[in-house]
Amino acid sequence: MSAENFDRSLKFTLIQEGNYSDDKGDPGGKTMWGITHMEYDAYRQRKGLPTQDVRQLTVEERDDIYRNQYWNACRCDELPSGVDLAVWDCAVNCGVTQAAKFLQRSLSVPADGHIGIITLEAAQKSSPVLLVHDFCERRREFYRMLSTFSRFGKGWLRRTDECEALAKQMVGVIPHVATSSDDGASIKASADDLAKPTASPQQSVSITTGAGIGSVIAQQAQAIAPLKDLSKIALYIFLALTIAGVLYTFWSFYKQNQHQAVL
Predict the structure, then answer these.
(1) With contact defined as beta carbons under 8 Å apart, do 59 and 65 qualify?
(2) DSSP letter string over 151-169?
(3) What does the pLDDT look like over 126-145, one tens digit per residue?
(4) Residue 3: CA atoms inside 13 Å, Cβ hemisphere, count?
(5) Where are the alpha helices (DSSP H) in the chain?
(6) What is the structure's pLDDT at 235?
(7) Domain limits of the chain?
(8) How much is the average pLDDT of 37-62?
(9) In the CATH scheme, what architecture does the domain 2-199 have?
(10) How far apart are CA 54 and CA 32, in angstroms?
(11) CA quadruple 160, 77, 44, 99: dihedral positive or negative?
(12) Model pTM score
C-alpha cells in the first residue's frame, strides 16, 4: 500500500507544482516539478556529479529526491493512509520540519520537527479523518500568517482544500475530487516570512479559534455515527448535549473576539 500511496501522492503534488517555474516571488527560485535549483545542486553534489540547470532534472532524479528527501524523511510509509498524503504535500510546499510540527501539534505530542516513534504511535492511534482535518487547518493557519499570503494565499488554500479532500478519499470518507493548478499553489511557503505577519493579533485569534470550531464539529459528527442503534430517547438526549456543546464553543469564540476588540 505504501508504494501505491507514494505514487498517488506524487501524482497529486506534481499537478500542483507544474513543470518549470522561475517566479521572482518564489523563495525557492527556479524550480522544475517543484524541485528547486538549490535542492538539485545539492543532490547532484552528493552523487559526485557536476551541477547543472534544474531544467535538466530527469524523472528518475525527481522521483529519487521526492522519495528520499520528503516521503521517507516524513516516514510516510508508517503513517495512516491519507495522513501520509497530507503530511507529504505540506512538506513539499512548506518544508519537512514545518510539516512534522503541524502533525505533532495535531497529535498533542512534543513538536520538535522530527517524526519519530512517539509521533508515529500517536498517529496510528488517532482517527485518520480527524487528524487530516486538524492538520490541514494548521496548514491554512500557517499560510494566513505569512507576509506573502495576499499574493499567493488563494492558490495555497485551494491546494490545501484539494489535498484534504483527496486525503479523506484515501481514508475512505468522501468520493473522488478534481484537482487544479496554475494559481500560485506551487510557490514555496517559507517560515521566514512569519517575521512579517500580515494578520493582526485579533485576526490570529479568529483563525485559531475558527479552526478549533471546525475540529469540534467534525469530532461530534464522528462521535454520533456509532450511535445509530441507541433508543430514540437516548439518541435525542445525546444530540441535544452535542448541539449545546457546539453552541457553547461558538459563544466562547464570540466572547473571545469581543474581548480582543476591547483590547
Answers:
(1) no
(2) HHHHHHHHHHHHHHHHHHH
(3) 999 999 999 999 999 999 99
(4) 0
(5) 2-17, 37-46, 59-66, 83-94, 96-107, 117-125, 128-144, 149-171, 201-224, 232-262
(6) 56
(7) 2-199, 214-262
(8) 96
(9) Up-down Bundle (1.20)
(10) 6
(11) positive
(12) 0.69
